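Reading a protein record of the kind used here takes little practice once its layout is understood. The reader may check this reading against the record printed directly beneath this paragraph.
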Amino acid sequence: MKTRLALAMLLAAGGAQAAAQRTPFQIRCEDTISKSLSVLKAQQDGYTVNNQLPYRALTARTGSSNRNMETLGLTVTQGMHKASVGGPILQDAASGYECIAPKVDIQLYYSPVRIYVGSEFAPGTCAYKEILAHEMRHLKAHMDNLARVQKVVGDALNKRFAGQPMYAPSGTAMSALQHEVGSTWFNFIRDEFEKGKVEQDKIDTPEEYARLAKACNGEIAQILARRRK
């Protein structure tokens, strides 16, 4: 019991000492300025399906012909982000420093999603439905990745700012915040979006291509054989 009491008194004394070490400017910044805030939003605006390009054009777009593979369907999009920053600033003439309570608003989204199905496969046919279903798996993987990126980036943003102000020489706090978001955070977001390629690759397996070749009683393979002649 005495040990617990002594520990509690020690922690209280340590906290009081840490508080006493803050400068008047730090007290102003940390106790009176509004808390920093990071807002992260993810959105997706749907997709379109295009059935006008032949499979050879889709194959050329992906470079699959270099690997002796044919692209029958294709899902095209790219992870995007934009941000706005701001926040109130307090000046300290004595030290020549200022503090800012960062307000960081980042939006994550995909560029317009376009799903292509080779024009050789007419809508409503079994072959068309099979290829489209395959591409819908890619679309779902993109959406799952968007949700994952939102969580990872959101957790990192909250940990980085944690409601605390940023300090910088007078006149530089806002530019420092803009630089951090535009370089460090945008690179971090880009790298997180790139990690989604792993799940995309899991969809395009030799086993899946073999399944499609046999689907619809061989309809897809027969269409391709006729086109190759």
Q: What stands out?
A: The chain has seven helices and nine strands. Helices lie at 2-20, 24-32, 55-62, 126-161, 173-194, 197-203, 206-228. The beta strands are 37-43, 47-50, 73-76, 79-86, 89-92, 97-100, 103-110, 113-117, 166-169. Confidence is low (pLDDT under 50) at residues 1-19.
